[in-house]
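Support reply, case 0932

Customer input (verbatim):
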Amino acid sequence: MMRTLLSSIGFLALAAAIPASAADLPRGTVPYKAPAYMPAAGYNWTGFYLGLNGGGGWGDSEWSAVGSGNDPSGGMIGGTAGYNWQGVGTPWVFGLEGDIAWTSFKDSFTCSAGVSCETKNNWLGTVRGRVGYSINRIMPYVTGGVAFGDIDARGTGFAGASDTTVGWTIGLGVEAAIVDKWTAKLEYLYADIGDMTCSAAACGGTATNVDLSVNILRAGVNYRF
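Our regenerated output:
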């Protein structure tokens, strides 16, 4: 009987000691929860910009009275101004861009006995709409609008004539944000700047219409404000 009593007292003492010991154990740390993933904000193309561009071109000029023509080619360098708008949450970018460049497009051909007829373009400008698709910092785009410039035509030994003409242009390109507010682009344009009339006294003894179209490949840098 005494043994049973002592055993019961020992069991109760052990049972009482267990919660007290558990209370002395260090508390478990709160499980770490990683912060929610937040993707980096996408590049937004909205804003006004100014830039420089340069490249070259090759084209075609027909002299209607002669039934032949030449292929003017040369370099170009100029300035650009434009504005882009990109809505929140959409990759589409809409813009308006204008540029004007000094050019050295020229070529000549033999248009009659002893007479060489030359077509020359000294400056060229465009005003175009642009529609781009933003892939974050890279934007391919299509573009089109109005092209204008001078057509300078003359025959050897004749006075020659020059006129400002207006036509159209269409093209495509890709622009990329490179650092801070600077972007760079590569662009192709086809520009038909129309035709002008050159009198017989100015262009080789026969009045003729002279037209000009050019393919333009150029690169540029823009600064966004």
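We compared this against your earlier run and they match. Two observations from our side: Residues 1-23, 36-40 have pLDDT under 50 and may be disordered. Residues 2-24 form the longest helix (23 residues). Please reopen the case if you see a mismatch on your end.
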